[in-house]
Design brief:
This protein is mainly beta. The chain is built from one helix and eleven strands; from the N terminus they run H-E-E-E-E-E-E-E-E-E-E-E. The strands form three sheets. It has a six-stranded mixed β-sheet, with no helix packed on it. The chain has a three-stranded antiparallel β-sheet with strand order 3-7-6, with no helix packed on it. Strands 9-10 form a two-stranded antiparallel ribbon.
């Protein structure tokens, strides 16, 4: 009888370990489209707008957080507005994983496995984004759009990046 109970317990443990391994899910998604607008404001600050179209792959973990990298930590958190599929995102905090950056907690509006979703975020004020240029009377900016690690994201992305310069600049002034 002891041998039978031992066999049943051993089978239960093996089954539990197998089920646990199968149910462990990783993040794996595609970003079909990323539109980034960088607005250089007259006061030298910037506003950054992202629209990200996610495709969450079958069998993967729900996309419950989206981390967005920023040029520096000198941003106004109260100027950030974010939405998932048009629904306001209430959890907007400094990112635990991307520095400098923010995390958007999608909560009950997370993008499930085998589903799509659109995240839109506007960071209204990022200061200290301009610096002195090597060319007299010019300012420079260095910016890289946010991206996701290859362990989570794969495939091609239709990326559009637009820089909007302050009003009043003529076509002869910008240099790149």
């Amino acid at each position: 009888m002891k041998k039978r109970w031992f066999s049943i317990i051993l089978l239960f443990l093996l089954f539990s370990l197998t089920v646990g391994s199968v149910s462990a899910q990783d993040y794996l998604f595609m970003v079909e489209r990323e539109e980034v607008n960088l607005y250089v404001n007259e006061d030298g600050s910037a506003s950054i707008e992202y629209t990200l179209d996610f495709v969450n792959l079958p069998g993967s973990h729900a996309i419950d957080f989206v981390d967005i990298g920023l040029p520096n930590d000198n941003y106004d958190q109260s100027s950030i507005d974010a939405k998932i599929n048009g629904i306001p995102i209430l959890h907007i905090q400094p990112s635990e994983y991307v520095s400098p950056g923010i995390e958007l907690g999608l909560g009950g509006d997370a993008i499930p496995s085998d589903q799509t979703g659109q995240v839109h975020v506007m960071i209204g004020t990022v200061r200290d984004i301009l610096y002195n240029s090597d060319i007299e009377d010019y300012a420079s900016i260095e910016f890289s759009p946010s991206w996701f690690g290859e362990q989570y994201c794969f495939g091609d992305t239709d990326l559009t990046f637009t820089i909007f310069l302050p009003a009043g600049m003529n076509s002869e002034e910008p240099r790149y």
